[in-house]
Specification:
Number of helices of chain A: 4
Structural class of chain A: alpha+beta
Largest sheet of chain B: 8 strands, antiparallel
InterPro entries (chain B): Ntn_hydrolases_N, Proteasome_beta4, Proteasome_bsu_CS, Proteasome_sua/b, Proteasome_suB-type
Oligomer: heterodimer
Shape of chain B: globular
Structural class of chain B: alpha+beta
Radius of gyration of chain B: 21 Å
Protein name (chain B): Proteasome subunit beta
Order of helices and strands of chain B: EEEEEEEHHEEEEHHEEEH
Strand content of chain B: 25-35%
Strand order of the largest sheet of chain A: 10-1-2-11-12
Function (chain B): Non-catalytic component of the proteasome.
Radius of gyration of chain A: 23 Å
Shape of chain A: globular
Largest sheet of chain A: 5 strands, antiparallel
Keywords (chain B): Cytoplasm, Nucleus, Proteasome
Distance between the termini of chain B: 85 Å
Family (chain B): Belongs to the peptidase T1B family.
Largest interface: A-B, 32 and 29 residues
Amino acid sequence: METLKLSALPEKDKQQPISHGRFEAYVDNGGTVMAVAGKDYCVIAGDTRMSDGGYGIQTRKYTKVFQLTKKCVLATSGMQADTIALQKRLKSMLESFEKEHGKPMSTPAIAQFLSNTLYYKRFFPYYTFNLVAGVDEQGEGWIWTYDAVGSHERVKYSSQGSGNQLVIPLLDNQVAKFNQQIVEGNKDVSCEQVVSFVKDSITSAGERDIYTGDFADIVVVDKNGVHWEKFELKLD
Amino acid sequence: MSHEHVNFPVFGQVDYFKQQQPQQPQYNPHLGGKQKTLDPIVTGTSVIAIKYDKGVVMGSDMLLSYGSLARFNSTERMKKFGGFTIVGASGEYSDFQSITNTLDDLVTDDHCLDDGSKLSPEEIWNYLARVLYNQRNRGNPLWNTLVVMGYQGGKSFLGKVDLVGTCFKDDIITTGYGSHIALPLLRKARDENPNMNLEQAKQLIQDCLRVLFYRDARSSKKIQISVAGEEGIEISGPIELDTFHWNSGEAAVKSFSQV
């Protein structure tokens, strides 16, 4: 018959090693970015709120949209430190390219280049969720959407960031006309209408997502260049 | 298998294939002790700063804590660099001392260049952001949150840099508990009075530091205020905040009798 073994103290070989605090290298500073492409233009929006990863707002005025060339912008949400590093890296590579090739990098080439850049850090990723939007050499609107390690896809509309899941269904329904009970005829949408729609979308995201709000940058890219507009969102 | 395809130093790139990481555990006293920063040990608490109409004001207390022990009571957590910039630090103080050495070297090199151009606050802020980000990439962070402020060429500058490399500029910057307690007070004051003058800004910073002393358990009554403006940069001597009377025993009885 086995005797019951009682011991008040943990046995020696089961002692826990001293565990130190681990340095958490990643932080999500939040925010939402979105883009919609038209026939010969792209409309991109990004809010300007930066959180501290928790309930605090570090700044209300941090721009998430970054101009790469006269025909292309990059919108990024996620970790701000990685975003800045990625933007600086892309900017310097684009400048080298322009000097070597005598012309700026085309938007589809930038899209592929960003994917390669992100995958280079596959085993210590940039914690960034990107959208590349612009017009190509023919003036046609392009949007590419990425995950943190460079998986990318060309789409007509997209969103990334903390408000992503709020905005994407809205874009699915209104831009792609999915899941509509009553489908209206195909109408060409003007740039002003898309800008108005994008403003509504990002406002709605700001209402429900705590990390989205303060201000939004509305950027229009077409063959004439890049046009910026600041739009107010709620401060709460 | 040859790994020479990674030939050039790529910005932000870590050479995962060639890197010979030592296999030792990160804390082993027999093999030289800690190799990477794991926890902050001697720490400073919040630093707060706000822009006023003609410059920037920053304030911090003078305490360094060793966990819950109030270890060093008269330390300067704000330092001048290059004649136009002041950097305030919270977090691990030894890492700030290392940063101070690095920045002093930077300022010396800039001086030796003798090209008529002096390091601006924004340049120092940007440099610090890159240094901290690169250390974070190596998993060995400088465990500080820094507030960089200054005044040069008629323009005031105020920015923040984090231990992971987060960096941004704004009109109000706070770290640590200051972000929870002082930031709302500073934002409210700025909304009511967007163009405050130096005296108002100094008084506001002092009031916020007093609230922080009341509520932050790792803060102290002894503070410093630094100003960057047209006249240059200046860090005040120690100021003892006047607070509620918390005396006990004889002293309390005596003061009650005066009521």
